[in-house]
Amino acid sequence: MTIRIRKPQNSLQELCVALKRFCILLEAQKEVDAVAQLREILAQLDQEGVAGPLQDQAIEAIVEAFEGDHELSAYMLHKSKDPEAWTEADELFLVSTEVWNLVRRLRRRE
């Protein structure tokens, strides 16, 4: 078994990539306000770098988007009905779960 030790910088880079993919999928769902907020957060994360108060604020803003007004956590509840077919809902489930897990990982490092 291989254990990969992840550094905060790696997790932050993965989060930025996952957020970009999540925004693209949310645009197709007409989640205009959520996409605008996530793109602002993404710009903040790209600007700030590894650690700092802006990064912590950006991570908390993502948590708020998932648990607050936008309720993006609903995308993590998807259950595939047809195991043979790959749908946009499946993609949304995977990407939203990836974003959420990366945010949790970055919050734990504090």
Would you kindly provide a written description of the structure presented here, covering whatever features stand out?
- The chain is an all-alpha fold and 110 residues long.
- The chain has one domain.
- 67% of the residues lie in helices and 0% in strands.
- Helix 1 runs antiparallel to helix 2, helix 1 runs antiparallel to helix 4 and helix 2 runs antiparallel to helix 3.
- The mean pLDDT is 86.
Structural class given helices, strands, pairing?
mainly alpha
The H-and-E topology, N to C, reads as HHHH
Question: What does the largest sheet look like?
Answer: none
> How many helical stretches?
4
Measure the end-to-end span.
28 Å
Number of domains: 1
Could you list the spans in which at least 5 consecutive residues all have pLDDT below 50? none
What is the tally of beta strands? 0
Helix content range: 55-70%
In terms of quaternary structure, the protein is: single chain
Strand content: under 5%
Evaluate the radius of gyration: 14 Å
Mean pLDDT: 86
What's the shape? Answer: globular
